[in-house]
Amino acid sequence: MSDQTEAAVAPVQAFEPPYYVAVFTAVPTEDRSGYGETNARMEDLVKEVPGYLGADHAQTPGGLSITVGYFRDADALTQWRSNAEHRAAQERGRAEWYQSYTLHVAKVERSHGFKRA
């Protein structure tokens, strides 16, 4: 048995629509040098964007990674997309860390959640 304590797993809460989601799905390269540090920095940096609501992350056993970022409005999403440090990380991702990726941006019109008592 592992002596590591696993963090609680829970999805980001459902928000009152409308809001926006950015769904980033990626296939990583084998060399991930520097990725962890940059990813941690991006997670800290996006929290500074007014209107950022949170993110969900998942990875398949085969290595496909999925990040869903939630934003209150299009302006918040634009601010994140335009951030110079984020842009530099995107360029490095294309050059070093990703075999391929897709980005889908959508306006959420309906949202609800469930949590067992």
From TrEMBL:
Domain ABM positions: 19-92
Organism, as annotated: Streptomyces murinus
Coiled coil start-end: none
Domain of life: Bacteria
InterPro entries: ABM_dom (IPR007138), Dimeric_a/b-barrel (IPR011008), Jasmonate_Hydroxylase-like (IPR052936)
Record protein name field: Heme-degrading monooxygenase HmoA
Matches recorded under Pfam families: ABM
Keywords, ordered alphabetically: Monooxygenase, Oxidoreductase
